[in-house]
Amino acid sequence: MVELELQVLRLIRDATAAGLIRWRKNGHYDDLFDAESDVYHGYIQFRFPAYNDDAGGSDRDYVRVGEHRFMIGTAGWWLALEILAAGMPDWQEHLQSLREVYERDIRELSAAIAKCKA
C-alpha cells in the first residue's frame, strides 16, 4: 500500500510539473495549500502536533497530501516538498537550499573518511 501512496504522489508531482495542477496557499492557513485542477482535487497541509502541553505545537512533524499522511523525513514527506516545488518558485528555492546542505555534508564527510583511510 505504501508504494501505491508514493505512486499517487509521484503522479501529482508530475501533473504539477506539467501544469495540470496548480497550487495556491490557502488564505486562512499558511501551511495549507489547495490544488486547482480539473484532474486532482486535494490539498497539502503541514501539521504541527503539540507535545508536552506546548500549546504552540512543535516543528512541522507530518504532512497530509489529501488523505495520505507522511511523517517528516519519509519518502512521502520529500515528495510533498517536490510537489510544491514543481509548482511554486519559493518552494523550489527552499528544496534547492536543503539539497545544497545535504550535498555539502556528503562532500565533507566523504573527504574526511577518505583522509582517515589514507
Shape: elongated
Give the CA-CA distance, first to last residue: 46 Å
Low-confidence stretches at least 5 residues in length (pLDDT < 50)? none
- What class, by secondary structure content? alpha+beta
Strand line-up of the largest beta sheet: 1-2-3-4-5
**Beta-strand proportion:** 15-25%
Radius of gyration of CA atoms, rounded to a whole number:
17 Å
Q: Please tell me the total number of domains.
A: 1
* Mean pLDDT over the full residue set: 90
Write a brief caption for the model.
This protein has about 120 residues and is an alpha+beta fold.
Describe the protein's architecture and organization:
The chain has 3 helices and 5 strands. The chain has a 5-stranded antiparallel beta sheet with strand order 1-2-3-4-5, covered by helices on one side. By secondary structure, it is α+β, with helices and mostly antiparallel strands. Helix 1 runs parallel beside helix 2 and helix 2 crosses helix 3. 49% of the residues lie in helices and 19% in strands. It has one domain (2-88). The protein has helices at 2-17, 75-87, 89-117; strands at residues 22-25, 32-36, 43-47, 62-65, 68-71. The chain is elongated and about 60 Å long.
Features:
19% strand; five-stranded antiparallel sheet; 118 residues; alpha+beta
Can you lay out the helices and strands and say which pair or pack?
Blueprint: H1 2-17, E1 22-25, E2 32-36, E3 43-47, E4 62-65, E5 68-71, H2 75-87, H3 89-117
Helix pairs in contact: 1-2, 2-3
